[in-house]
Amino acid sequence: MMIIMKSPTVKRPAATRKEISHERIVEVASRAIRRSGYSGTGVADIMKEAGLTHGGFYAHFESRDALLAEAGERAGAESVALATRLAAAAAPGQGLQAIMQAYLSPQHLEAIETGCPVSALCSEMPRQAPEVRHAATTHIKEMIDLLARQMPDWGQPQAHEQAMALLASLIGATMLARAVDDPNLSRAMSAAMLKHWTAAP
Fold it and tell me: CATH code at 150?
């Protein structure tokens, strides 16, 4: 007979006021960088939106770049987590299709503030501080790995090559579809990208 023992419940200490404030700042900043870009995201505006005073910023972060890096990490983690859930919920062999359809959907194109941070910020990344670029690079690597694991030839070197090409295509198509002022062209770009990769061997 197997005896199932309950593990003792471990109570986590309640978050301090400083921890709650820190989380709020990062949450606001992760949306702000996607909405307004790195250069359009100011500390004063973030603190105001978070309901905190500008003077309290340096109790949480050493610099604006440190905030941008942490905000990028948060945005990237959210994006990867969503793509992972989509792949897991899809029918067997359909994970890649589910991710592509969601990424190229009108909802994602319109939701720049809560969408993938790479397609929202890619053009600005080369000019950012090393810690900000590192956060972006980590997210890009995670997305490549996630896409590679959905490939039919996962485990082979070409799976990562295909994943890199697919991610570049998804990001490029999204940036172009958001850039144009013609909704029909925007939808056509997304549809063409999806059709191309769906038909790809």
Answer: 1.10.357.10
Dihedral angle at the C-alpha atoms of 11, 52, 45, 41, nearest 10 degrees? -30
pTM (two decimals): 0.85
Domain count across the chain: 1
Domain that holds residue 75: 64-199
Name residues whose C-beta falls within 8 Å of residue 180's C-beta, 6 or more positions apart in sequence.
Answer: 186, 189
Assess if residue 188 is contained within a domain: yes
Alpha helix (H) residue ranges in the chain? 17-36, 43-49, 64-89, 95-103, 106-110, 117-121, 130-150, 157-179, 183-199
* Lowest mean pLDDT segment, chosen from 50-64, 70-84, 121-135: 50-64
- Cβ-Cβ contacts under 8 Å for 45 (sequence gap 6 or more): 32
